[in-house]
Amino acid sequence: MTSSGISEGPSADASVGDPRAQFHELLPSTRRSLHHRVAVAQSEGRAPSVVASVMRDGEILWEGSATSVDGHGPDGDVQYRIGSITKTFTAVLVMRLRDEGLLDLGDPVEKHLPDTGIGEVTVGQLLAHTGGLAAETPGAWWERTPGTERPELGDVLGEQPFRHPVGRRYHYSNPGYTVLGALVEKLRGAPWEEVLRREVLEPLGLTRTSAQPEGTAAGGWAVHPWADVLLPEQVEDLGLMAPAGQLWSTTRDLLRFAAFLAQGDDRVLNAETVREMRAPAALSEDGDWEGGYGLGVQLFRRDGRSLAGHTGSLPGYLACLVFSVEEGLAAVALANCTSGPLVGALATDLVRIVADAEPRFPEPWRPMPEVEPQVLELAGPWYWGTSGYGLRVLADGIELAPLQGKGRSARFRAEEDGTWTGLGGYYAGETLRAVRRADGTVSHLDLGSFVFTREPYDAGAPVPGGVDPEGWRGLKL
């Protein structure tokens, strides 16, 4: 092995006609920072190779790698094993079944897979790792042994599958995702790998993602902790455990997958469903407010920035995919060693470097093409008791937010019956409706029984508890 070399991949060309397009290509200083960060990860992590890529708004901005073999740096088309990022792909298949009405997230596993011994656990709890199942399989470590040693689901779960009460806490479970894979196979009547290829990989154009290595793939290595020598890692077919960690992929394919997880694709899952997958379902550790888990998606909070994605590892490989919906940024980092480089920190740093050095240009403000008068009249200040709120009419709904401080704010989606449904925070799923008087004018807003009036404690609206008939007054001393 020789000293580390750095390989640079393509960047997106500026498109014509968009005044912001000239900024699609990163500045030389930003590119250098990205290259430097990857080089540090490879050198300090003592990895045979590290490859990484960054995407913004669906365009790959940068690819880079650092390698121990001069002139042989991997690019974004080289496969690495991605370990538990596979779980996110499996979760997508389960959510497709839910959207088709073939299951409900509240269904107990027993409804679809009887005689597993974990019948009380729900599908949603398995997705969020809150089912109380063991982290690993009984017997020999499944990552370093062939799947033929666990031919049945009972071999994966064992005689005592639970470690915690069902639904009480987050506890990461690889066997739980094996059960989800079995669920997919049962309801689709086909192997997990075949269903994944047909329903996710092909529609999204992920031609370099596969259950077995195909084409150019990086070999997996173990690096001695006290000497600069290597040991090749054996690659095992995980059998029933495949839905928890089998896949191989590339940085380019994983960035395309990140774009799908951020925006949705109606051929696979719509935007509302992928948003549901990204919503917090469990904290990752007791008291750890910097991380959490959705439905097959890990959640991170780094440098004041909310990120989603997943990490992965198997003997010989490390992987991380992260993305920021708000910044329109995604990053992937892959390494071919069992331990060493912190690819999770690397991927989040790549997002931070681009976001801080070259902030995203906002979309130009444009007036709405039209607005209904009965919606427009709701705009402006409202009061919940003495707390001031502002209601803003947007192109895709309305937003209600405190005039001072943070408080409870939310966006709302219009419904066909004239009401509005909260999309996040305290008011998620709650109904807002405008209550009108006999003459058609708006009396007040009712938001889950909270009354919002145009004036604080408006005597002309049904304020709960009533309003003192003497009205507002001073205090004589």
UniProtKB/TrEMBL annotation:
<dbReference type="InterPro" id="IPR056008">
    <property type="entry name" value="DUF7586"/>
</dbReference>
<protein>
    <submittedName>
        <fullName>Beta-lactamase family protein</fullName>
    </submittedName>
</protein>
<feature type="domain" description="Beta-lactamase-related">
    <location>
        <begin position="42"/>
        <end position="353"/>
    </location>
</feature>
<dbReference type="Pfam" id="PF00144">
    <property type="entry name" value="Beta-lactamase"/>
</dbReference>
<feature type="region of interest" description="Disordered">
    <location>
        <begin position="138"/>
        <end position="158"/>
    </location>
</feature>
<dbReference type="InterPro" id="IPR050491">
    <property type="entry name" value="AmpC-like"/>
</dbReference>
<dbReference type="Pfam" id="PF24491">
    <property type="entry name" value="DUF7586"/>
</dbReference>
<dbReference type="InterPro" id="IPR001466">
    <property type="entry name" value="Beta-lactam-related"/>
</dbReference>
<feature type="domain" description="DUF7586">
    <location>
        <begin position="371"/>
        <end position="454"/>
    </location>
</feature>
<dbReference type="InterPro" id="IPR012338">
    <property type="entry name" value="Beta-lactam/transpept-like"/>
</dbReference>
